[in-house]
Amino acid sequence: MTSTKKDPVLAVLQLSGGNDALNTLVPYGDPKYFDHRPTVRVSEDQVLKINDYVGLNPAMAPIKELYDQGKVAIIQGVGYPNPNRSHFRSMDIWHTCEPDKVGNEGWLGRATRDIDPTGENVLTAVNFGRGLPRSLAAPGVPVASVGNLETYGVLTGIEDQQRDEALDIFSRMYSPAMGRGQVIDYLSHTGMDALKGADILSTAPEKYSSTVEYDGNSVAQYMRNIAQTHVAGFGTRFLYTTAPYNSFDTHAGQMVGHSGLWREVSAAVRDFQDDLNENDAADNMTLLVFTEFGRRVQDNGSGTDHGSGGVAFVIGENVKGGLYGEYPSLADDKLLEGDLHFNNDFRGLYASLLEKWIGIDSKPVVGGTFEQMDFI
After folding, report:
1. In this predicted model, what pLDDT tens digit does every residue of 53-79 receive, in sequence order?
2. Crossing angle for the helix pair 160-178 and 192-201, nearest 10 degrees?
3. CATH number of 9-147+216-366
């Protein structure tokens, strides 16, 4: 009997730069919030209230609508022990699940290898944006990284012989540094995987139609690309994109900049959900939205500096919406060097998604056993 059950898919939207948790999920019911934030704060009358203590930033109305429909899980105080305030190191920790050393494999790279150990499907994992996030990188794991789906693959119509010549040129460029044999082996494998992936992905737009009109910013367009790839049915299990580099690093001018960022992200997330529903493709898609750390509890007069204790979102038709974990205390004696403590280890968040949604053993992926959450 042929199974018609769809494989579960995880999309990830990374808010690069360190999103300010306090002005995202606003603890308007705590007087300490207004004490610590004399300037960079959301007034109570503007907050999109969830309960008598917290509410969402007013720029997040589309996400609040999804929350009210029970489709958004908000993970409060998410982070890890001994937080690092460096963008690069903290994001590396989130990407590799290695807080005590520099890891060489990304968590989604490991998960991809678990699902497709022989690399049979070169599109098991796809990234949209420049470069390749560390979370997707693992030796021997093919990952397609796409700058623009509409133009991706335009050079892939060349004949196999010309492709071999192109790879040979690359091998001669890099062989002095790495050794020719190693480079040829690497490029012939990953290079041909990339070309094969490009060939397949270039057909995605023609398999997709939608009445949803996304905004023109990069987050919206990449979320549209994720929807197109998902709808096309290539067997992709992990789809990834990143907000513009360090855009959430709001050291100055935060009140305008942060609201504008969340307005774009929230609209993109809403349009993405509408698009999936229109294409009957929402039932097997879950979206994770995360950032590398939160911001300092006290503002600096115009913005906020690097902190800890962030907030993450899990969104989709299969999500049990609500607040998860306790909001970190704002009491002076409960802060960590002026930062929010973390209440939920991000590896438990990942483990919950991997085991309860994707359906694989999380321990080898996240590096141990962590308390899971019941949002799926």
Report:
1. 999 999 999 999 999 999 999 999 999
2. 140
3. 3.40.720
